[in-house]
Amino acid sequence: MNRDVVISGGGPVGLMLACELRLAGVDVLVVERLPEPDQTIKAGSVNLTTAEAFYRRGLLPAIDEVVQQNHAQIKKFLESRGGGGPKGMIPVGHFAGIMVTSDGVDFGDADFRDVGPAARVVVIQQQAVEAILARRATDLGVEIRRGVELTGFDAGDDGVTVHLGDGGSVRAGWLVGADGGRSRVRKLAGFDFPGTDPAVTGRQAMAELTGADALPGGWQHGSGGLYVHGPMPGRFLTVEFDGPPADRDAPITAQELEDSFRRVSGADVRVTKVHSATRFTDNARQASTYRQGRVLLAGDAAHVHSPFGGQGLNLGIGDAVNLGWKLAATIHGWAPSGLLDSYTTERHPIGEWVLEWTRAQVALMRSDVRTKALRRVVDDLLHTGDGATYLAKKLSGVLHRYPIEGEHDLTGRAAPDFAFADGTRLGEHLHDGQALLLDLAENTELPDTAAGWAGRVKVLTAKCVGDAAPTGVLVRPDGHIAWARDDGSADGLDAALRRWFGEPV
Question: Mean pLDDT throughout 296-303?
Fold first, then answer.
C-alpha cells in the first residue's frame, strides 16, 4: 500500500499535522502504538498562538465548550477555598513558580495585536485537545490505526518503507516522527539529540486527598522543593531537587505521591486514591535538525524539556502547522527550493528558546539561600508593569517571529485577526488551510499579480474596520505574514509568491 505520508504518533501533534496534510489533499496514515488515548495527566492549558491555530482551522467552538466547563470547575474550587481573587486577577502564567496575573499586564502594548476570539481560550486539558483533533482528522478522512506500533523503517531517496508491529509494512513518500520524547523514529533515523541531563524529579497527579484543605493554592516553595495544589480539585504537582528518578517507568503509587507531597509541603496530607499520575524531569534536549532526507520530526520527538511554563503542547502544535503545508507543497510538486528545509530554520530557534526558558526556571526554583535571594529580586521585577508584560508576551508567543525577508514590521509575524466591514474576521477565511492574499485597498494590481498562483493562494478583497491596516498582506497557510505593504503598491509581492509558493502556473 502506498501513502503520501505516514505519521508515527497519534497524540495532538501527530493529529494536528494529519489534519493540515488532509486539508491540502495529502493521503496520510497515522499509526499509534496505544490502543486508546493516554489519560495520564499532562498539559492543562494552551497559549495564544496555539489558540489562534485552532481558531484559524474552525476548531474554536469545540475547544471553547471545554474551556467554559473548566472555568466553572476552577471557579468552584477557588470559591471552596474562600478565594478566587477580584475581577481581572486572571493568571497569565508563571516563571519558576512566580505567578503573574493579568491586572499587571499592559495589553495595549504594540506586540499584543488584535487576536479576536482566540484570546478567550486558555484552560483546556491535552486529552480534550487530542479528542477534538481525532474527531477532526476522522472527519477529514485520515486513517488512524491504534494499537499499531512502528517497529522500523527503510528510508531511501525516493521514499520510506515503514514496518509495523502487526507484521505489515507500508510504503510512503515521507515519514514523520511525532512519537514523543523517546521517539523510536528519531532513534532509528540517527538524529543528533544534544542537551542537558536531568537534575530534578517532578510528579503530577489527579487524586483524592485528605489534609490538603488548609494548603494555599498556586506555586509554593517548601523546605525540600516546590508544590502546587489546584487549580482543579485533586490536582497537585511536586518538584524535588534530588536528581532524576531511579526508574522513571516504575508504577507511580499513592504512597510515593503522598511521601513527596509531605516532604515539600510539610503538611499531613494523605493520598487515598490516584486517578492519574506521571513523573517528569528537566531533561532538556533538541534535535540538531528536524529533517533527514525523507524522515522528519515534530513535537516532543524533536525536543524535550520540563513542563515549567507550559510550552510543550504549544511548541508541538506550532511545529505541525508550520510543517503541514510545506510538506504538502513538496508532495504536490510545486514547492520552491528550500521550502521544506525552512521548517527547521523557522521552528528550531523557538524550540531552543523553550529549552533555555525551562532551564532558567529550574535554576531559580532551588531552595539554597542565594537562589532564594535571587528569586525575590526576580519576583519584584515580574510584578512591575514592564516585567509582567514581558512575561505575558513571552508565554503567549506573540514575540515569535520567523526570519522572513521583508521591510514591513508585520513580515514574519503571525497575522492580526483583521476585522472586515462585512462582519467577518481573517481567521474565518483560513479554515481551508490555503494561503490568502488580502487586498485591503481595492488595488487590482494585487489580484492581477497573484493570478498565476490560483489554486495555491486565494485572494480576498475587503475593507478593514478599526485601526489603520496595511493595504496588502500575504498570509501563509500557517497564519504568518510573508509580505505586506502600506503604500498600495505590489512591490515585492511577486518575489514573495515565488519564494513561498513556487513558480506561477
Answer: 98
CA 134 distance to own-chain centroid:
16
Round to whole Å and give the CA distance between 364 and 306: 14
pLDDT digits (tens, 9 = 90+) for 196-206: 999 999 999 99
What sign does the CA torsion over 176, 181, 186, 187 have? negative
Find the length of the chain. 505
Q: How far is CA 274 from CA 41, 126, 204, 205, 271, in A?
A: 11, 19, 11, 7, 7
Q: CA angle, corner 108, sides to 103 and 114, nearest 5?
A: 110
Indicate the angle between helix axes 385-396 and 369-382, nearest 10 degrees. Answer: 90
Q: Are 296 and 341 in contact (CB under 8 A)?
A: no
- The x, y and z cell numbers of residue 300, run together, are 516532543
Cα pseudo-dihedral 116, 120, 126, 127, rounded to 10: -100
Residue at grid coordinates 503542547 = 313
Asked whether the predicted pLDDT for residue 437 surpasses 90, the reply is yes
Cα separation of 131 and 139, whole Å?
12
Check: CB of residue 34 under 8 Å from CB of residue 361.
no
Span 57-96, pLDDT tens digits = 999 999 888 877 766 666 666 555 555 444 445 678 899 9
Q: What is the mean pLDDT of residues 123-146?
A: 94
Burial classification of residue 371, based on how many CB atoms lie within 10 Å of its CB (0-12 exposed, 13-18 middle, 19 or more buried): middle
Under 8 Å CB-to-CB from 323, ≥6 apart: which residues?
A: 17, 20, 176, 290, 296, 298, 343, 347
Work out whether strand 98-101 and strand 218-221 pair parallel, antiparallel, or are unpaired.
Answer: unpaired
385: part of which helix (H) or strand (E)? helix 385-396
Do 308 and 416 form a contact (C-beta atoms < 8 A)? no
Nearest to 375 by CA among 215, 200, 204, 220: 220
Q: What's the pLDDT score for residue 76?
A: 62
